[in-house]
Amino acid sequence: MKNERRVCGRMTEPKIKNMEEFAAVSGISRPTLSKYFNDPSSVRRSTRTRIESALEKFDYQPNFYAMNQNRRLTKNIGIVIPYMADPFFAEIARNVENLVLDAGYRPILLGSHGDPEQEIENLENLRVIKPAGVLLAPLGRVSDPDRLSAFCADVPTVLFDANIENVGEAFVGSDNMQSIGLMVDYLCETGEPPAFFEMKSPSNPNALKRRSAYVYAMERLGHAPLLLQAPGEGWDFEDIGFQEGSRVISERNLPSDTILCSNDRLAIGFLSAAYQLGLRVGSGAESALRVAGHDDHPFSRYTCPTLTTIAQDYEAIARKSAQTLFGMIESNARPVSRIETVFDGNLVRRGSA
Amino acid sequence: MKNERRVCGRMTEPKIKNMEEFAAVSGISRPTLSKYFNDPSSVRRSTRTRIESALEKFDYQPNFYAMNQNRRLTKNIGIVIPYMADPFFAEIARNVENLVLDAGYRPILLGSHGDPEQEIENLENLRVIKPAGVLLAPLGRVSDPDRLSAFCADVPTVLFDANIENVGEAFVGSDNMQSIGLMVDYLCETGEPPAFFEMKSPSNPNALKRRSAYVYAMERLGHAPLLLQAPGEGWDFEDIGFQEGSRVISERNLPSDTILCSNDRLAIGFLSAAYQLGLRVGSGAESALRVAGHDDHPFSRYTCPTLTTIAQDYEAIARKSAQTLFGMIESNARPVSRIETVFDGNLVRRGSA
DNA sequence: ATCAAAATTTAACGCGCGTAAACTTAATTA
DNA sequence: TAATTAAGTTTACGCGCGTTAAATTTTGAT
Asked: Which residues in 42-61 of chain B line strand D, with CB less than 7 A from it?
């Protein structure tokens, strides 16, 4: 059976092949139609109505490829996130995607699977489709800053979530100093000062910021910082948290009865370890350990116990990143200096601390 | 500051504008180059070498839009999954994506966010870019079968994960009858026969298959099936599992001390409820309840206790779906009849049952 | 060396739309 | 109502590549 694609559409109103034909049947000239498809608001209201009613009658849509071939700038916007299988990034990507769509652009979502080469490849793939701009949540420390910079020199790019010095025209993220400070304050007010549980060599720049923020907050309150650093590389944070958690708990090597994890995924692994070793976690008197996280990961409300954490303002970050990019695109100008915007996090009190 | 994109590339070897110019500098005629870029193996080995060494010297890549404009079929393959923020789908999508890439196609990943309209919109967006084929994991019961069919009539499509009767040229998924049978056997051998915990009106067709499989397996073993059906719609499975779990546990309404959940995400919510209500879950004698899931969700190894479940063969499903689609594309033929392939699941024994 | 098959080159056309210039029509303002 | 401006039409060209047909070269087997 040959692959004869059935032509869909009624015989009475045959499918319109190209803009020329649509111009004929709609009674609008092709250049005007071209303007309309490029930006519907650029034509007079009355002609817009005429076009749109013709559109309803004749179902035609311009050829995507021919359309973009000769345009200086397409309406495509690339969205690159470090890890698609991490619900945190999936969620923030969804927010960004919707904003891009609402602004009349076409989002193209790519995940880097934790691999810096994949990240570069994603950007190179984007280059091919000549995007109007890119929203990039970089891998971080492992990213190739030179190649990232080279890309950003060619395509207007806004970084979000993780910052890399001097890469991109702007950065939007969370204020780790504020959020970690908030959490340390809370933990100190309600119990023993926390130790900080993190990866020894974290790939995410936020992790480093959170470490300093923790140290700063502890010293501000007159406590000695206690760092608990797990070995391990990569993006399998739960496993790293689990392994190191198991070790320190079974060796009775906990520097404090309160553990502040650098992120929720580490905390999820840590909590799992505590459970398996029979260590009761929670804020109550009957518990031996308190655990807190950071990010308000979608799963943090189902851990045992539920995880006290910091909720990042997904929505604000997504909105600000997108708006910054749209501004650059529409004004066809780059900011004079690199703009960094950070939003406050909110404390989410749950069972674990 | 005007948006003057810096031209990257050395002055000594100026950037090649188009295939014509590349033909000039490489000493290969344009039609041959065109053939090469369409399929590198379609030119003689010696000329291929010449082209590729020229490519290293001159960095040129054909204009994506001009390239696809006049091709009957692009090298794009759409991948549509129901929910990007579900790590299960993110993982399977990653597998599929890599296979598509390795086969020399260009994957375009779209998530439907659990919304049937978004699903249709994704397909319509794909239509615009004239994909060679589509790999579709449909939402299921809520999907619009007519519009899905209409799309599949125009574009070669392979369904995976969730089956919809007569939609697409083929289906690849898991054998729920086998996997649920396996789990029921295991649970009955090691303890009390399980009750089946599911959503009252699940949107996923696998859920219905699993229900029947459970009933069949129980009757085969001479037990009366026990269905525990949670109200609720949508994709917030953990919450649904948690709510109903909380209810039946606190009302002491458990029909059995063994609960087989229709999927891991329900189980995750259920386990969280059990923990919060102080009900000890596990296979040991000291536990009051056993819980099992299905899918081997990435988080199922960090639940408390760790979740006994069925691992679907991600990799086999991805490979078979992709190969089936590639076969159709390359032979330019559709299968005479719709092919359905299912793979066995494997029991993953962990702490919860 | 001979010759047919296979691969490449040359030349030329078309795809569907962006875009620019010159002109005409419609809407706005005085 | 005339003058002005904004919007639309006509005409025409170009983009970069797919594709075809005929002419030519290369290849590999005889």
From this structure: 44, 46
pLDDT of residue B174: 96
Q: Which residues, at least 6 apart from B35, have a Cβ–Cβ distance to it below 8 Å?
A: B42, B43
Which of A8, A84, A270, A295 to probe by mutation at the B interface, max B CB count within 10 Å?
A: A84
**For A244-253, how does the pLDDT look when each residue is reduced to its tens digit (9 = 90+)?**
999 999 999 8
The 3-state DSSP class for residue A289 equals strand
- When divided into structural domains, chain B yields a total of 3
Tell me which nucleotides of strand D come within 7 A of a protein CB: 7-12, 14-21, 27
Q: For the domain that residue A46 is a member of, what is the CATH number? A: 1.10.260
Say yes or no: B332 contacts chain A, CB-CB below 8 A. yes
Owning domain of residue B243: 176-311
User: Mean pLDDT of residues grouped by 10 in chain B (353 residues)?
Assistant: 37 75 94 94 94 92 93 90 93 94 93 95 94 96 94 95 95 97 97 97 93 98 96 93 96 94 97 95 92 96 97 95 94 87 97 94
The reply to whether omega before A305 is within 30° of 0 (cis) is yes
How many contacts does A have with B, using Cβ atoms within 8 A? 144
pLDDT at A307 over 90: yes
Q: Which residues have a Cβ under 8 Å from the Cβ of A345 and sit 6 or more positions away? A: A174, A175, A178, A179, A182, A294, A310, A311, A312, A313
- Chain segment A123-180, per-residue pLDDT in tens: 999 999 999 999 999 999 999 999 999 999 999 999 999 999 999 999 999 999 999 9
Residues of B in contact with A106 (CB under 8 A): 125
Inter-chain CB proximity B8 and A275 less than 8 Å: no
Residues 210-249 of B, Cβ under 7 A from nucleic strand C: none
Q: How far apart are CA B82 and CA B265, in angstroms?
A: 15
Please report whether residue A117 resides in a domain.
yes
CA A202 – C1' C7 distance (Å)?
A: 55
- Same domain, yes or no, for B294 and B321? no
B221 touches chain A (CB under 8 A): no
Cβ contact A49:A79 at 8 Å: no
Identify the pLDDT of residue A285.
85
A2 confidence band (pLDDT: 50, 70, 90)? very low
CA distance A281 to A287: 5
Which residue from A94, A130, A299 is facing B299, i.e. has the nearest CB? A299
Residues A188 and A273 occupy one common structural domain: yes
Q: SS3 of A105, please?
A: coil
Residue nearest to nucleotide C7 (CA to C1'): B44
